[in-house]
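**Sequence with structure:**
===
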Amino acid sequence: MASSTVTSSQPDRPPRSNLAFRRLRGPRSPAEFAALVRRAAREIGERVSCDARYIGRVEAGEIRCPNYAYERVFLHMFPGRTLTDLGFAPRSSVRGRAARPAVAAPRGPSAGERPGESPGERPGERPGESLGAVEPYDLWDHRQNDPPNHEESDVLRRAFMTGGGATVAAATLAPLGLAPSATAADRPSRRAGIPEAMALEEAVRRIRLLDDRHGADGLYRRAAAPLRAAYALLDAGATRQTTADRLHSGAGELAISVGWLAHDSGRFDDARSHYAEALATARMTGDAGLEAHAFCNTAFLARDAGRPREAVRAAQAAQRAAQPLGSARLLSLLALREAGGWAGLADRTGCERALVRAQALFERGRADADPEWMSFYGEAELAGLEAQCWSTLGDWRRASRQARRAAQAQDPHFTRNIALYTAELADDLAREGRPDEAAEAGLRVLALLNQVQSSRIQGMLAGTARVLLPHRRASGVAEFLDRHASYKGPRPVGGGGPV
């Protein structure tokens, strides 16, 4: 656990809002602007996990100066401007650090360079100077003077570029004592403070990022230990009530994230336990946002586990919890969860009503009140969940149309979801009686399974293969069946998702 005794370098006055950066965001929501930042990063070969919360911290003045990766991205987005023009403090004024030479014009990495490095940033330099490529927060925070964490960040960066999902997970879940080797018996010897709360929130973000790219299989086992460490932090107590609230919220969100990894890898009983743990944490602290999130995932799990009536009730409970939060997009997603339950009950009228409500709420647009964890929810997810409803109701034509729309609209960052929607499309086309198109979509999924490990997706693809067996003579079907039969990826665990 990194030391929290760095109060001497903390600002002695409240942060000042970054109005210049807020003006640059314009009419876009924080989540929309964060998406533009991620896109700009990809253009110059950087990796940043920017989200609405990060944008909010910048605008609130909590981030006085960004790390070097974000600096390169921001200067790429706003050419001709300096960090000062963007409302940031000079780097030399932040925590007493000397300013580095001016950052060169952003560009992609040249031969011999790695993403996240600029000219002159080589492994022989001071550790951590160029490690912003996978850090969603600035490196001048409490970790700046902690060399072991610089080493962890370097391992993390290399793992993102060279390792598979499990390798990345091993590196990424280690910061500030939330290591895979941690156990609940290793209770902290002192009360938790802001650094521990930040580490917990960071662990949640990293798990979500890894799941977006690699899927759940290979991540779940490694994510359970940080969750135990998080609840050990709660048991140790916190220095302030505000910190305790952050710890409870972070632990609850981590429980949901770990529960989702269990859910997506077919471990339904484990997922149910983690979601219940998050719900209990929310109820104890009166956290309506966490309660809505826990019920949301519980509804999704109940649908997949063949308990559609429970799915409807959990989704309705989530909507009651979310009502005062002011997020139309959250209510839209929860209406879709309810629609999935109605579809499972073969109640077409109830399903259609929930779908109409979900669409109407979605069209109200984004808002600052949208939870950070909902960054995945856009046009693609809306279409994908609607496709699943029509598929459950046996309306294969509508299902395939929405699944195709979902796969085409998905942000390339969400590799797992692209594979999921394309697998849904393949299955719907197969059942609609279009085997050649189904085989083509199935082959695209198989290509993505080199990057994504998800028992849900593998289970869906296995179901498609069974449907296509009688159509081996159709164009492309034999190739798909042969490649699927020879696929050597991780075997599905447990029941998998609905087929």
